[in-house]
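Same chain as my last thread, 268 residues:
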Amino acid sequence: MWTALAMTALSLTPAQDGDLKLSKVRNTYGVLGQERKDSKFLPGDVLVVSFDIENLKVKDDGKVFYAMGMELSKVGDKKGKPLFKTEPQKLEAVNSLGGTTLPSTALATIGTDTEPGEYVFKVTIVDRTASKTTYLTRPFTVEKKAFAFVRSRITTRFNEPIPATCVTGQQIAISTAIVGFEASKGKLTDITFEMRVEDEKGNPTLKKTFKGDLKDDNKDTPGMLILQPIALELNRAGNFKIVLSATDNASKDKKTTKHELDLKFLER
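reply #2:
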């Protein structure tokens, strides 16, 4: 199953002055997160594209009237029909600080039952005031199911998005999920999870890591184990690395997986 939210769109060709155009286009780890360098995803992950829309027509009170739609399709699908499609919906924003640029995000949730293959994410954006339209056609790959972390990002304790660059004195949380695991005889997950924080020299910041066993019936989110956000207190500035690791104790060969997030903390 696919679910998606189109919050903006992209253009693949340079725009002339006055036309809709985009800047700072990149895949990210969640909304407001750090850049994700690849376009390869696992079933259960989320495709997030972040960017700025420029040259929108803005009213004197800062209001921006626009519309967005999106569709998802699989390359080579014989039926030739989108897996998901929504017509552009009317939206509004307010550029309180002036200017004609609007930071935006488009995302699509990849279901745990998604077949591997090549896919295309297409987004349409319409400037309703200027009657201008532009499009994004963004290819990405869904790989075969595997035991791995997906949806890893930093959030608040309540799973709300926050920027990847934070300041000392702040409390953040690491949010993530695990897919591709096997169930034990009692139909419970049997996963050993560990998280450690490393400084810029690769040394652990604490002698004792965050570690525990994850046993869950997995009924609410079949095929995916969503972890509760893990809080971190930011008591000093610097460049750090969050290292997540897990072992599937229910698998015959005790599969393991690891994922890393690079974070920067500034003095407040």
